[in-house]
Amino acid sequence: MRFGLSNKTIDKIHSVFIKYPKLKQVIIYGSRAKGNFRPGSDLDLVIIGDGLDFNDLLSITAELDELDLVYKMDLEIMERITNEELLNHIERVGKIFYERRI
């Protein structure tokens, strides 16, 4: 188990990310990245890629919701985050959750 998630759950989430060629990497941050999560903790994820826009974010979020997992997922586009504290937090504790293979 990585980040308190079963391999099956991680594979389901990755199956959504792989459909989006612009998406290059996903970073997990927050309690799951730090290792101090609780059973009901959400997944804080930031997506990184070439030219990702709000429509991509909506599509990815909708597909993740359709997985019907028991976890709430917060998804952001890295390039659109303006909160310096959040960016610093992601830089400090973030870990690679998904990376596109070339």
Structure description:
A four-stranded mixed sheet has the order 3-2-1-4, with helices on both faces. 18% of the residues are buried. The chain has helices spanning 7-17, 31-34, 54-66, 84-93; strands at residues 23-29, 43-49, 73-77, 95-99. It has four helices and four strands. Helix content is 37%, strand content 24%. The chain is an alpha+beta fold. The chain starts with 6 loop residues before the first helix and ends with a strand. It has one domain: Beta Polymerase, domain 2.
Annotate the secondary structure layout.
Layout: H1 7-17, E1 23-29, H2 31-34, E2 43-49, H3 54-66, E3 73-77, H4 84-93, E4 95-99
Parallel strand pairs: 2-3
Antiparallel strand pairs: 1-2, 1-4
List its salient traits.
102 residues, alpha+beta, Beta Polymerase, domain 2, four-stranded mixed beta sheet, 4 helices, 4 strands, 24% strand, globular
Structural classification = alpha+beta
Say how many strands there are: 4
Elements, N to C (H/E): HEHEHEHE
What is the architecture at the second tier of CATH? Answer: 2-Layer Sandwich
Low-pLDDT residue spans: none
CATH superfamily: Beta Polymerase, domain 2
CATH topology: Beta Polymerase, domain 2
> Describe the biggest sheet?
4 strands, mixed
Q: How far apart lie the N and C ends? A: 25 Å
**Can you tell me the number of structural domains?**
1
The Cα radius of gyration reads 13 Å
How much helix is in the residues? 25-40%
The overall average pLDDT, rounded, is 94
By CATH reckoning, the class would read Alpha Beta
Shape: globular
Number of helices: 4
The main sheet orders its strands as 3-2-1-4
Oligomer: single chain
Strand content: 15-25%
